[in-house]
Amino acid sequence: MHPLFDLTGKTALITGGGRGLGQAMAMGFAEAGADVFICARSGDQLAAVQAEVSAATGRRVEYSVVDVSDREQVKKLAVTALEKMGRIDILVNNAGINRPQAIVAIDDDDWDTQLEVNLSSIMALTRALVPQMKERKWGRVIHISSVLGVGSKEARNAYSATKAAVIGMSKASALDLGPFGVTVNCIAPGPFLTDLPMSLLDDAQKQQFSDFTAMNRWADPREIVGPALFLGSDASSYVTGATLLVDGGAYARAL
Ligand SMILES: NC(=O)c1ccc[n+]([C@@H]2O[C@H](COP(=O)([O-])OP(=O)(O)OC[C@H]3O[C@@H](n4cnc5c(N)ncnc54)[C@H](OP(=O)(O)O)[C@@H]3O)[C@@H](O)[C@H]2O)c1
What we know:
This protein is of the alpha/beta class. The chain has helices spanning 20-31, 43-57, 71-85, 108-136, 157-177, 195-198, 203-212, 225-232; strands at residues 11-15, 35-40, 61-65, 90-93, 139-144, 182-189, 243-246.
């Protein structure tokens, strides 16, 4: 492994690490040498990822069952993660939900929940964990946004609002934290084969998403690992406030 990508001695917290992109990043970071802390609501999924990743890599993997839509649980998550792991060097704000609703049909409770999960919890967790990164003069914060935070799609009002907001927040945080050796960046994924889009789209829409990319296919969840490792390691030491599109070229298309 190139030393720039070596995470030996580092500890990563990945929200939504029970399946999908979070699961892939937990494995990828552990393979690069990091100890990993994951959280989500489904304890059985977290336990399965813990067993799989620790068996495959020999790294320490811990988890907490947490609902990040509850601000008190987010505060407790930060305390628990620091107590169990001693330090968090890399924070990946990955947990996210998408409840599509056209503008005239938005349910207030759904709107509030999406803002809490996809935006406010990210602020609260980042706020809680960056002080100890600043003390060590090294930290990596990665927000998982979306191509739908750069452009959008019909009925993605709350989703796009939150995914664009984390891009904006990452720029401000990058400026706050740059002098302390802590970088803050976003990844904007295109279509990845996970439960989230699969549960929302019919077959025609799945084909349409694939056709929209330059590569004419959906991504395997493991294809998030390279970009996440780059932004989570010394390889990206002079990259902050950036948004990395990982979309198979979908956003290259104008028409
Ligand atoms: N897949 C794509 O095509 C795609 C594209 C662009 C952006 N993204 C973004 O990538 C991130 C990961 O998505 P994914 O595709 O991997 O989706 P996923 O397979 O549905 O995984 C989402 C993860 O977040 C957790 N989560 C959801 N709500 C939570 C809550 N209230 N509290 C704690 N954990 C919660 C889920 O666990 P529980 O349900 O057990 O809580 C799960 O572990 C999301 O931010 C998503 O918006 C995905």
